[in-house]
């Protein structure tokens, strides 16, 4: 069994996400703790929120008081409601939340039945329940539950390694070609997307972007892709890397084939209406663009918003990491198109998209000089893209060559 602990600040959003599953027949309320148990199961978000309110009001200075936990047995495990109740109570006790108000929801909207628990880490006196080493304690609690309920043991190391594949590229760590490769060899065949724009939106979550290029080979025009590392604002901060460096999965031809395949597979995907309801709920319970994106992020959905120089929204894309599908807003609903969001948030303060990594002096140095390199050399690079004479795994990295030339220039300046 695997446990996932989400930490956030929007209790209403977490409760709404789960109660919505119940209202649409895709879930049930299994257990309430320090909250009255209604015999007719006629629960509502407002009802639950009332019993959390004293804890949130007492909160001293905890920035993320909400805990949204999911317990996920192996799909082959057969767990009944009685066992889920026992597992939830024992897990919460082990994690220090046994005396807190919490609600246990069972989700049945996918083949893998699992439970979600919503609670708060703030006690009635306003103090925070310590959460140091909570990942380690959570793993220990899961191992105990596996033995007690005869569940399949989760391969935590395997999952951790899989997650590490999809970390955003951090330019400050040096070998960006290796980091690019770890993402580009897996992401195209892991996620579904229906356009090149959606693919670029997906890659933006990993500090990567691409450009389509064309060139002539043996008298025929061919198309290809070159990839770049970007900074936290989506600006290119690396030299171009041709797709063949990372295998055929990241090449133009294969990406086009994946797009056509996704158009068929995603047409009637059952996760589509669920995502649509999740987004609509976040819209109703948020009062700004920032809080809207935060709510969705806490539900495992990333939001990529594209704006022009005047700040007008011309594109919005949602990346559902649960279903591993990428949707443009207009594909979900007319009411979720870019124009609708532009009208909704017009006049509100706009902020650039940010990722978890921040510029260092090395980033800024490279950023200033890379624009000059790009403008003067990109045409030459594209012209020879299909000649087979560009970058290869055995060639010296272009970034090394560029760095060396920059060092020589600096040495000459010092002299």
- The residue fraction in helices comes out at 40-55%
CATH class of the domain at 2-158: Alpha Beta
According to CATH, what is the topology of the domain at 2-158? Answer: BirA Bifunctional Protein, domain 2
Number of strands: 11
Strand order within the widest sheet?
1-3-5-4-2
SSE layout:
Layout: E1 2-8, H1 11-23, E2 27-33, H2 45-58, E3 66-72, H3 81-94, E4 102-107, E5 114-120, H4 134-148, H5 156-165, H6 176-184, H7 187-190, H8 196-204, E6 208-217, E7 220-229, E8 241-242, H9 252-265, H10 271-284, H11 289-298, E9 301-307, E10 313-320, E11 325-328, H12 329-332, H13 338-345, H14 361-383, H15 398-414
Antiparallel strand pairs: 1-3, 2-4, 3-5, 4-5, 6-7, 7-8, 9-10, 10-11
Q: Can you tag this structure with a few keywords?
A:
15 helices, alpha+beta, three-stranded antiparallel sheet, globular, 415 residues
In words, what does this structure look like?
By secondary structure, the chain is of the alpha+beta class. It contains 15 helices and eleven strands. This is Relaxase/mobilization nuclease-like protein. Pfam families: Relaxase (PF03432). It comes from Chryseobacterium aquifrigidense.
Brief account:
InterPro entries: Endonuclease_MobA/VirD2. The chain is built from 15 helices and 11 strands.
């Amino acid at each position: 069994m695997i446990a996932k602990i989400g930490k956030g600040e929007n209790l209403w959003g977490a409760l709404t996400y789960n109660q919505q599953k119940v209202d649409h027949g895709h879930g049930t309320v299994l257990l309430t703790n320090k909250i009255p148990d209604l015999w007719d199961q006629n629960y509502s978000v407002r009802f639950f929120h009332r019993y959390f309110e004293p804890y949130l009001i007492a909160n001293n200075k905890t920035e993320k008081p909400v805990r949204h936990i999911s317990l996920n047995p192996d799909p082959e495990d057969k767990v009944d409601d009685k066992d889920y109740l026992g597992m939830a109570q024992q897990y919460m006790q082990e994690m220090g939340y046994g005396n807190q108000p919490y609600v246990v929801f069972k989700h049945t909207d996918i083949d893998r039945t699992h439970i979600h628990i919503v609670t708060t880490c703030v006690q009635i006196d306003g103090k925070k329940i310590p959460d140091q080493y909570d990942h380690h304690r959570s793993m220990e609690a899961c191992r105990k539950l596996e033995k007690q309920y005869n569940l399949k043991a989760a391969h935590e190391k395997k999952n951790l390694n899989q997650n590490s594949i999809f970390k955003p590229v951090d330019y400050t760590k040096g070998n960006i070609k290796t980091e690019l490769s770890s993402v580009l060899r897996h992401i195209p065949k892991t996620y579904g997307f229906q356009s090149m724009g959606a693919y670029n939106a997906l890659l933006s979550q990993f500090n990567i972007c691409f450009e389509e290029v064309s060139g002539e080979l043996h008298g025929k025009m061919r198309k290809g892709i070159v990839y770049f590392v970007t900074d936290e604002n989506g600006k290119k901060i690396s030299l171009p890397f041709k797709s063949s460096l990372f295998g055929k999965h990241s090449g133009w031809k294969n990406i086009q084939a994946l797009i056509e395949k996704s158009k068929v597979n995603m047409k009637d995907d059952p996760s589509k209406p669920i995502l649509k309801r999740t987004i609509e709920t976040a819209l109703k319970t948020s009062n700004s663009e920032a809080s809207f994106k935060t709510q969705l992020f806490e539900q495992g959905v990333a939001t990529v918003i594209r704006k022009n120089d005047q700040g007008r929204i011309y594109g919005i894309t949602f990346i559902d990491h649960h279903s591993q599908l990428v949707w443009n807003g207009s594909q979900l609903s007319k009411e979720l198109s870019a124009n609708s969001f532009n009208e909704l948030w017009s006049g509100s303060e706009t902020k650039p998209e940010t990722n978890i990594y921040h510029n260092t002096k090395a980033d800024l140095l490279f950023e200033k000089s890379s624009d000059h390199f790009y403008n003067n050399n990109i045409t030459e690079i594209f012209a020879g893209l299909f000649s087979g004479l560009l970058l290869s795994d055995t060639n010296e990295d272009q970034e090394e060559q560029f760095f060396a030339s920059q060092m020589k220039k600096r040495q000459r300046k010092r002299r």
